[in-house]
Amino acid sequence: xxxxxxxxxxxxxxxxxxxxxxxxxxxxxxxxxxxxxxxxxxxxxxxxxxxxxxxxxxxxxxxxxxxxxxxxxxxxxxxxxxxxxxxxxxxxxxxxxxxxxxxxxxxxxxxxxxxxxxxxxxxxxxxxxxxxxxxxxxxxxxxxxxxxxxxxxxxxxxxxxxxxxxxxxxxxxxxxxxxxxxxxxxxxxxxxxxxxxxxxxxxxxxxxxxxxxxxxxxxxxxxxxxxxxxxxxxxxxxxxxxxxxxxxxxxxxxxxxxxxxxxxxxxxxxxxxxxxxxxxxxxxxxxxxxxxxxxxxxxxxxxxxxxxxxxxxxxxxxxxxxxxxxxxxx
Length: 330
What we know:
Layout: H1 2-12, H2 14-17, E1 33-35, E2 39-46, E3 50-52, E4 56-63, E5 65-66, E6 69-70, E7 81-83, E8 87-89, E9 92-95, E10 98-100, E11 110-113, E12 117-119, E13 125-129, E14 132-135, H3 136-151, E15 158-162, E16 165-169, E17 180-185, E18 194-198, E19 205-210, E20 214-216, E21 236-239, E22 245-248, E23 251-253, E24 255-265, E25 269-271, E26 274-281, E27 284-286, H4 310-329
Parallel strand pairs: 1-3, 1-26, 2-4, 2-26, 3-7, 4-8, 4-9, 7-10, 9-11, 10-12, 16-18, 17-19, 19-21, 20-22, 21-24, 22-24, 23-25, 24-26, 25-27
Antiparallel strand pairs: 5-6, 13-14, 15-16
Helix pairs in contact: 1-4
């Protein structure tokens, strides 16, 4: 029995180590918005690249443009827009190459600059580049698994409700980068008017695991009136691991991992990457890649998180073996 207990503790030490080193977003890493099915929006923009496995319907809309300039110029690596189904682009501007798996009829007011339209004639598989296809079904199976796995992590940080504000107290500062702070929240925690983040070093990673299948946010300040979340936004993941519907009314500072969710938005802005089943709404999706990616960084999105010492794990294993043999001898 003692051996079983020690072995269980030993195995439980891998709950964080399973994510040590890299949280890999796969093909989604290179896109500001990565959508499994349909994407529909008007009168707004995605500052970075957009990929959707279904139909894309946009008007008065811009893609891959920031401050009136083309954001990602490495069009030989990734196109500005990937559409697995049909593209309806009636007005606006896209900077960079466009790949369409279904139908697209150009219009006079939908402008594509510094790139061309490539109709590849594939309904569900669209290219990440001319030689590397995206299989959206495969990618989203992996993203759902990632989201669920992160959702199983034990919380090491505490959320406290105070009046109309939520205070997110991290696991503590230690002047070291790359620590992991995990908060376990639910749908009701998305309804406050202000949020404060503390006891976290600047380059640590914050995972907000939000449970619930049907979630609606407040119109509150998810950056914090003290800018505590805003200043950490490139290291914050809103993991809606159970969500099937997600209504966003707030300004969110951080990347959204909601691979099963149909997202609907009104006005607002998201400072981070968006991964979802579908998207409908006019919220801006601003360029703010997860972790240390810059606007023209290589197409990988890695979040470094703490890894238990290999020597410590080995010591525990040897101790468990010693106890077992001692019991057998006795």
